[in-house]
Design goal:
This protein has 231 residues and is of the alpha/beta class. It has two domains: 143 residues, HAD superfamily/HAD-like (Rossmann fold, 3-Layer(aba) Sandwich); 72 residues, no CATH class. It has ten helices and eight strands. Strand 4, helix 6 and strand 5 form a beta-alpha-beta unit. The longest helix is centred in the first third of the chain and has 18 residues. The protein is globular.
């Protein structure tokens, strides 16, 4: 990227995370419908939801919220046996109805501000419920974000190619003028790359490199992107 373009960030575990000790959690949401699941169960449900096309229910917030409520009602009726066809829908439903309050991760505000000062347009693209902008506002970060794209509104979950294309279209940029920053190899690196978007993996510095452009912090991500302008 040789001139200011578009920087797209993932949200959860990239810029924001849930408040510590929050009672409004995905596990609490499942418990409300009678399923006392474990973190391992949630991990499997999260993986099952990746790439889901739920565009049929994404026409409005009301329709989407109704679909989410119906999904959790189906979970309650199923009891301890999770139907294979239902499993991909569970985490999207929990995102809409049981999203915990968010806090900014260290360096998030400084990273966004530095990129904005340099002239970049900033977008969020996240597997999230309808209210990403509200949730991010609660973490104090919305001032430097121009575009919010959620799976709930787009109708497709990362790494489905349509959500990345929707982000480019909303922001008014082509893939060649964008870079995607996030913490997931599948949804924030491989998915954007298949859509023609350069990607930067945010990952702890453990000595193991999973991606050619891998950085240990948001500050390092900003330096990498800003360094392109100086070349």
């Amino acid at each position: 990227m040789q001139s200011p373009g578009l920087v797209v960030f993932d949200a959860f575990n990239t810029l924001i995370t849930s408040q510590r000790d929050s009672r409004q959690t995905f596990l609490a949401g499942l418990a409300e419908v009678g399923l006392h699941a474990s973190e391992g169960t949630l991990t499997r449900l999260q993986a099952a939801s990746e790439g889901l096309d739920h565009s049929e229910w994404s026409g409005s917030r009301r329709t989407y919220s109704g679909w989410a409520a119906a999904t959790l009602s189906s979970v309650a009726r199923a009891g301890t046996v999770m139907r294979a066809d239902l499993a991909p829908h569970v985490v999207p439903a929990l995102e809409q109805l049981h999203q915990a309050p968010m806090v900014a991760l260290p360096g998030a505000a400084d990273c966004l501000a530095a990129l904005r000062r340099a002239g970049f347009t900033i977008a969020l693209c996240s597997n999230w419920g309808w209210d990403l902008a509200v949730d991010v506002a609660g973490a104090g970060l919305t001032g430097d974000i121009d575009v919010f794209v959620t799976s709930a509104q787009a109708g497709y979950r990362k790494p489905h190619p349509r959500i990345y294309q929707a982000t480019l279209e909303r922001a008014g940029f082509g893939a060649d003028d964008a870079v995607f920053v996030g913490d997931s190899l599948r949804t924030d690196v491989l998915g954007p790359q298949r859509a023609g978007i350069r990607s930067v993996l945010l990952a702890p510095d453990t000595g193991r490199r999973l991606h050619r452009e891998q950085v240990p912090s948001l500050a390092a991500a900003a330096r990498l992107i800003l360094g392109d302008l100086a070349r």
